[in-house]
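Batch job 17 of 40 flagged for manual review because the log was empty.
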Amino acid sequence: MTAATGIVPIRPAVLAVGGQIGRYVLVNKLGQGSFGVIFTARDTVLDRAVAIKILNPAHQYNADVLRRFLQEALASARVVHPGIVTVHDFGTVPTATGETAYIVLELLQGESLTARLSRIGRFTFQWAIEIGRQVASALDTAHRAGVLHRDLKSENIYLVPDPAAVNGERVKVLDFGLAKIGASQHTQMNTVFGTPRYMSPEQCRSATNIDARSDIYSLGCIMFELLTGRTPFSGDIRAQLEGHKRAVAPRASQFVADLPDALDELIAQMLAKDPNARPQTMAALQATLHAMSSAALAANSPAPNAASSAAFTMPVPVAPNIAATMLPVAAELISPIPSSESPMARLSRGAAMFQQPAFTAAIGQPPARPRSSSQQACSLPNAASAISLPRVVSVPYHLAPHLPSNQRPTVRASIAGAAITFLIAAVLTAIAARGHIKSVSANPASEPAAIKS
């Protein structure tokens, strides 16, 4: 604070490790180019790691460079897709050499396709298809938002860990610095910019009169590179530009012998000189690659292990829609009872079972004493209701939950409880019958007249 004015002067930001830009403390330097520098930083408010791209103050008066820098923030923020790098913040900051701009982006943990290719040489066609599909999905969202990338290349595509994605990695498209937003007329006629190895024929002539099919051509160059380890055209910049404009692109199958014909043909269509001969939208391209990816996964999925799944495939003698969960009881107690029987008949048959020697020996009791027919008649309805099985509601359940199924059979949820109830009621009935039920043959005088005759 100055004594004369009482105003606290703004301290210029230090663009080095340990410096601070607003709420962001610079932690580590990731890279530097002619237009700016990228740091990892710590957001002191939200306590998270971010990446911050700072424009070189020397370009603060270059209107075209400043516009492209701001355009990257605008284009990235305009597209919301898991395959597009997220913009968190944007602003300007004074430095020792003048005011400059910065963009705060999500910090990516992974590596670019260029770095991966330098390590492994080339990708399998299954993985190349999936990468192309994810890029097409991300750029389809960008195109629908009116954003053309115009600088699509392997350096601008990152692979970041994601356990939920195919092969455990997700694609991230970044660097929209050369993007064309909507009907922007900032690009002058006959202006050519981009990366020559991946530029479409129409972009090699002018960056103004291009559409979404130019990004499709660039993606075709990337997929060609993923499969073969090289771009379709090489040499110096002039040779590359002439190749894209006039020469027929080689087939990827010339460098990869086992490449599927459908994939080889699709890449050839993406690299067609005439935009009308290419896939017309990223949505259509994404659908085609998705079908190829699904077919490749199905063809390479392992066969089920017969030994590990034997327990779930062995035939089990159970009734339809009924789970075999009954308790291990005597065979007499679980013998099927015809549904046409009346409660009286069911009780009579049950009482006969309980009086068998095997049953009485099992419970350690002597045979039950018979009782009169009048006693039997008045107690039968109550006894029949006591041992009748309760009506239970069927609930959906899957006998093999580890196996996929769209229809799950129903089972009786209380079959075990019903069996226990039946057993208890039967035992109680047998005990009660011991002192009250008398055999008809033991007391002939009490038989009805119809029976005596």
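Reviewer: the log was empty due to a logging misconfiguration, but the result itself is present. The two ends are 129 Å apart (CA to CA). Unflagging and moving on to job 18.
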